[in-house]
Amino acid sequence: xxxxxxxxxxxxxxxxxxxxxxxxxxxxxxxxxxxxxxxxxxxxxxxxxxxxxxxxxxxxxxxxxxxxxxxxxxxxxxxxxxxxxxxxxxxxxxxxxxxxxxxxxxxxxxxxxxxxxxxxxxxxxxxxxxxxxxxxxxxxxxxxxxxxxxxxxxxxxxxxxxxxxxxxxxxxxxxxxxxxxxxxxxxxxxxxxxxxxxxxxxxxxxxxxxxxxxxxxxxxxxxxxxxxxxxxxxxxxxxxxxxxxxxxxxxxxxxxxxxxxxxxxxxxxxxxxxxxxxxxxxxxxxxxxxxxxxxxxxxxxxxxxxxxxxxxxxxxxxxxxxxxxxxxxxxxxxxxxxxxxxxxxxxxxxxxxxxxxxxxxxxxxxxxxxxxxxxxxxxxxxxxxxxxxxxxxxxxxxxxxxxxxxxxxxxxxxxxxxxxxxxxxxxxxxxxxxxxxxxxxxxxxxxxxxxxxxxxxxxxxxxxxxxxxxxxxxxxxxxxxxxxxxxxxxxxxxxxxxxxxxxxxxxxxxxxxxxxxxxxxxxx
Length: 524
Prior knowledge:
alpha/beta, 3 domains
């Protein structure tokens, strides 16, 4: 056993802990199908949100960890439940009123309101695949419409007919009495209207694999459960999909966790062992509401990638999956800087620490070197002070601070400079609020200005930080009130960068001018 694999067997990183649970399934015998199957499910009822990406990203991290522990081949399947009927109209699409007449039709039968694809389901599937391809995930995409229609699901559907009473018993135990009267695990798709019907069964015929029911109009109809004529209700569909594919691991949001015993029982009834599963906490918007595909609240994947790198988003997804996360724009700068902090730490870590470092899981062990010689948060403040409209304005300051840096040699810094300008203009600039200094604060700011006028020690961030400290040490308790003064009076924000480093980046003369403007009230 290699040293790295030995360390992986002991690693406390959550992907390794999950991978070890999966490996225990095959302690006695390897998988009959010859590989371990990881799955993520997606309901394309609206545009993919960032939680969907997070599910695939995290599952990929577990799969990578498994590969470090075992030589058993792996596959990752992304399954889209696009045969599901459209139950409500998304609010974040154009021409939404045109979709009303298509309610209850499978998503792949609903016209695309964007006019780009053959259906709304196809559009949302394409959006998801584009997102996943942007991040370089290794996955196979399966459409429920194709899976049901092609016959790949037929064997399990026929087994569900055989086990109908047993599966119904599991489901009815979880339903209110009123719902029990009309419930069936099978949802027929009307051959004429194309709508998914939520109707009780009059009979389920094991011999010929058909179901008989009354339509919404009261007409009796018999359909085969095979060939895409029928789909399963979503809870039975979960367990049946596990059985049909032989899924070994799936993660899903906390809102599914109470249904896990149901999914497991149905999978076992259909003849397959239930997979390992992992329940993560939900993603919330700034107001603490659950992110929804149909309402489009929270930060979208495209929005995050407009202001930061793909790796920073992967880093955010790695952190504490069992803790609820608020997805709003303020979390982006912090994620960028913490990601690069972890990159810098990785170089000096031993194998044990590296396997516990998020960047190992983001980059599959092939971890790049960070060349972010200026933190993203400091670039934001520089953009603010400079009123930057493009990243070239920032590079004038960066090159003075770090002469060896250039857009060609520091690609990550160059990209971050562009992101910082965009983020500043879209979020920071509209929210800037300056205030006048108090008499005590004015004394400290004047002393700092005078100290900078007499400064002769070059652009040393640590030395400049000592100067900043000395001006506030005798006047402020706690010291954070002094730094809050600097941010609110000079930057128009409630928090900001390590100020000595910021002075070094901005320049001595420019910092003196900034303080003079703050003292004169020019920002008010």
